[in-house]
Amino acid sequence: MTTRVNLLSRRLIAPLRLAALLSLLVSVGVFFAGAGEAQAAPSCAVLSTGAASQADAAVRSACGLIGTPYSWGGGHGSQPGPTYGLCDSANGAPNDCNVRGLDCSGMVRYAYYLAVGTDVINGTTRTQWPTSRAVARYYKSDGTAPLLPGDLVYFGNTASTIHHVAMYLGQGWIVEAPYSGGYVRVVALSSHSDYYGAIRLYGPGNSTPTTPPTTPPPSNGGQYWVDTNANAPVYGSPTSTTSTGTLYQGTNYVYCKAWGREVSNGSAYNHWWMKTDPDVGPGGQWVSAYYLSRWGNDVAKDNNGTTIPTCAGGGAPPATGKYWVDTFTSASVYASPTSTNATGTLNQGTNYVYCKAWGREVSNGSSYNHWWLKTDADGGPAGQWVSAYYLSRWGSDTAKDNNGTTIPDC
To answer: 3-state DSSP call for residue 377?
Structure first.
């Protein structure tokens, strides 16, 4: 049996297949062209509303820098603006001392200078981030919804490892000086995987940077930024002597403070302890305010000069020179640390004392104490002396208050 073949149909198969293939390729091309358009960076501009006029002006200034060469260390001269950078192979910039341009922090510095005529954000990324000029501060946990054009966005896993800054345009886009060999450009904020947070230098309607309020409400759950002058050990409580980790030197956040044992060296000392999350060890530990680089003895303030609030139940420094102690029983008081004639009684419980002096020994078995504490007795005249032997928390020849603070000499 012979099968007849329709030659016309057979001849049409190849052209039809080619047409179908071309149609598919056109469709695919249209698809990818559309995807490319969706990802293409917009023209550099203010892309959303709500920012202060100074911030909008800074965005326009930054957009005017598009195409400026990146130069490691560029833009950090005595005046803002492009400069020759640093040749630093370790930072991927082996030739940047021959390139006149801006690095990331130099770019945002110059943009704001052009916008407002004042050098409002000098320094590197890590010194810009904690600036006291910020009127608002946001963190990764806040998302990007609160951001406005002109906000400076920082990248790094922690405050001490921030390594890059850019300026927010709106709608998820930033303008940045990216890296050695690159040029100022517009990219998506999401192109960086380690967004850390953002600062705002001008609030809507403000003509100058706002002075931070006396007790600012930090946006991320009560964090106050402080500079520490050295790597500092942290502890499980303000009176503990067993270290649980380390807080690295640099700019770190703390939550609140509590009065505790003294940390001192020579004439420098501090009894305040600040609750923080260390770089090494568990969260919620305590670091001595002795390590604060900006302040003096028994001061616990953040970098803005704001007094760090006291933690709930955190104790307080002695009021008008009073140190609080627990006595394990009612104790006789005397007119002097050497007297043997009782003048009254200090009742068992929590009592205040003013200072201490060395005197006659009070002992029982292996327990003894030569320190005497000046106090106001419950029965008898004021300004009498009670033996530190009766302190319930401490051992022989020790005179500390309930926080572990050594009671000063009279």
So the answer is: coil
